[in-house]
Amino acid sequence: MINNIIFDFDSTIINAEGVDLILKASFEKLSNPERTHLLTQLNILTEKATCGEMPLGEAIRQRFDLTRIIKDDVVKAAENMLDHVNPFVKETIQHLRDAGKQIFVFSTSFEEIVRPVTDALLIAWDHVFTNQLIYDFNGQVIGFNEKNPLFLSVGKGFLAEQMKNDGRLPGRTAVVGDGATDLALRKSNIAQIFIFYAGSKVYKDIRQQADFTIDRFDQLLPLVFSEEEYPRELAHSISKVREKTTSSPKVLLLENIHKNAVKKFKEHKYPVKNLNNSPDEKELIETAQNYQILGIRSRTRISASTLTNLPDLWVIGAFCIGINQIDLDAAANSGVPVFNAPYSNTRSVAELVVGETIMLMRRIIEKNAAVHEGRWLKSAEGCNEIRGKTIGIVGYGHIGSQVSVLFEQLGMSVLFHDIVDKLPLGNAKSAQHLYDLLGKSDLVTLHVPDTPETRGMIGARELMAMKKGAILINSSRGKVVVVEALRQAIDSGHISGAAIDVFPEEPGRPDEIFQSVLQGANNVILTPHIGGSTQEAQENIADYVSQKIINFAKSGSTLGALNFPEMDLARMPKTHRILHIHKNVPGVLAKINSVFARRNINVESQILQTKDQIGYLIVDVDDHISDHVIELMQHITETIKIRKIE
Ligand code: NAI
Fold first, then answer.
1. To pair with 234 at 20 to 30 A between CA atoms, which of 26, 105, 448, 473?
2. Which of 353, 399, 480 for mutating ligand 1's site (highest number of atoms within 8 Å of CB)?
3. Contacts 24+ apart (CB under 8 A), 376-385
4. Is-catalytic flag, 624?
5. How many Å apart are CA 218 and CA 235, to the nearest integer?
């Protein structure tokens, strides 16, 4: 339980620095260029003072040295002070007072401008501490009361310690502010919690060291009230935690995702909205508000700003293979795991390679075209069986190894090359060097990812290293083959045919005209990146991705997530689960566990893993988790997202 709350004044109770308001009032008399110059100087000094980079008294002195200040300037600033009070300050202070909390204001600015505000907030003057200005008999400011402890960087700590010693700060104390002097109270343990107010200017270094962060004043209430003190109706008005944690997640599916996904979500009683289109960012932000689950395919772009504007989103399912359309780091930093279906269309690609190989080896493309035109090209010249020939597979991963199995069954010898040591399937043999494979294969098929090493890996030299009359198939990624060199090799007859499904530049929209140097080449099959596009693959994708999403929704499992630590924790009976996603900085677990300890909640099991910028914690506790506990954890400075699963 918190008994006393010490508020910083500047950029906390008010939305500006009091000293700056006085100076700005005095700058009014100056010409425009002079005022602009002085305002820049003022901002630099204020920043140094707030971050603790310059002794506080020195920073006040240097700011007042910028210009001559008279009493009228101070009075003018004081007149407008109430306009600067931050939203919800008045109501919050009223609630704290009603609950019997002691309220104090420690301000490093001056009595003249602090008092109109604290009087309006009904804070007793003996609970307000400020600096004092000294004027000469003409009303010009000539100095400060340098004996006042608040004139020193350590002044707030000094003052609080005195108050603690003489019994004016009984029990536990919270400090609310945004500066180094506020943080110092927490560090010296005069205050037991430091709540960073991020509603004005945010100094990241200070914020990182805070126990909790709020950006609206009333969010302070759950942090200083105990569960019993916290009125229910307030909990509802301040936070949407209840809605976020207890209702079934709502699912928005875009781009005509296979009906299996819809079915699966409905089986779990999740409300589903299934749309065919791919909205632009603005429309997406509007449409996806209040949805927790978003399913997309390759055409919907998810940027950092989309994610910032969808605060209720839990998870994204990419019902496709590629994930270039999603800013994965931004999603992780927003606490949103992304799942895709990387291997659901492996078989579809492998089967297409089989079909194309036979088509090319039998020169079906030109024969088919001729018959359509009324010509009868009945000839066996250049036409071969695939049995007994050698296939060279570059990249022996999911697709490459399936291709290996299928072609061996068709009677071909299989050679493969991979940068990673791979176990050969069946009678396949590994070629240590790419060139060994190229020189021995009648058909070379590419199944590598797009990496700096694979870009341009098949160019003029590699094509010339292939057997004369060999065939090339690329259904991996467009930039792996230098298409200009391939065209030359085909035109010269060195390469007898090719099937190309992927291109260095591919149209972004179906109505965009596609152009390639390969168009019109002899015995060449060109397909529009459809290697994996089958109904079966769509079904597999729908089943796989929706199941991953449901696992995450129901238990927090992130196995298979692209941008998250991969975790799964078996649930003990009669436990309650919290998922906590936070910034990956030291000390967060201690803060979370201190919330549990303060509420006497026993942790049954927990796992924490980190990946890059984020940490992910799954905790099972033995007791029902109240919204109040969730709120406390939500305001832990490093919290990105929190969800409870009952
Ligand atoms: P995978 O990741 O399972 O296998 C790729 C293999 O390539 C790995 O074994 C890896 O070690 C190897 N590799 C990486 N760099 C290499 C290098 N420089 N030299 C030799 N081997 C190298 O990937 P998967 O699922 O087999 O997919 C292969 C490719 O097919 C990917 O580029 C993928 O984007 C593409 N793809 C295309 C589709 C289409 O519609 N055309 C559909 C599905 C996948």
1. 105
2. 399
3. 382/496, 385/361
4. no
5. 10
Mutate to test the pocket of ligand 1, among 476, 500, 502 (most ligand atoms within 8 A of CB): 476
* Residue 158, ligand 1, Cβ within 6 A: no
Ligand 1 site-directed mutation target among 393, 432, 448, 502, most atoms within 8 Å of CB: 448
Active site residue 506: yes
328 plus 398 within the same structural domain: no
pLDDT at 335: 96
Co-location of 223 and 192 in the same domain: yes
Distances (CA, A) of 96 to 3, 30, 93, 156, 499: 10, 43, 5, 22, 74
* Number of domains observed in the structure of the chain: 4
Is the domain of 401 the same as that of 412? yes
Clarify whether 571 is annotated catalytic: no
| Model pLDDT, residue 467 | 98
Whether 67 and 182 map to the same domain: the answer is: yes
Mean pLDDT of the chain: 92
Ligand 1 in contact with 288 (CB < 6 A)?
A: no
Distance from the alpha carbon of residue 454 to the mean position of ligand 1, in angstroms: 10
Which atom of ligand 1 lies nearest, measured to the CA of 321? Answer: 43
Q: What's the CATH number where 100 sits?
A: 3.40.50.1000
Q: pLDDT tens digit string along 318-370?
A: 998 878 899 999 999 999 999 999 899 999 999 999 999 999 999 999 999 99
- 42 and 128 co-located in one domain: yes
Q: Is residue 454 domain-resident?
A: yes
Do 97 and 170 belong to one domain? Answer: yes
Rounded CA-CA distance 57/37 in Å is 22
Residues 12-25 pLDDT 10s: 999 998 888 998 88
Residue nearest ligand 1's atom 32 by CA: 449
Q: What is the CATH number of the domain that holds 610?
A: 3.30.70.260
In a shared domain, residues 250 and 312: yes
Beta strand pairing status for 576-583 and 614-621?
antiparallel
**Which structural domain range is residue 178 located in?**
2-230
Q: Is 623 in contact with 602 (CB distance < 8 Å)?
A: yes
pLDDT averaged over 10-residue windows placed end to end, the chain, 646 residues: 94 91 88 87 84 82 87 93 93 93 94 95 95 92 89 89 93 93 91 88 82 90 83 61 61 95 95 94 95 94 96 95 91 97 94 98 96 95 96 98 98 98 97 97 97 97 98 97 98 98 90 95 96 93 96 96 95 90 92 85 92 95 84 89 90
Q: Which residues pair with 479 in a beta bridge?
A: none
Residue 502 in any domain: the answer is yes
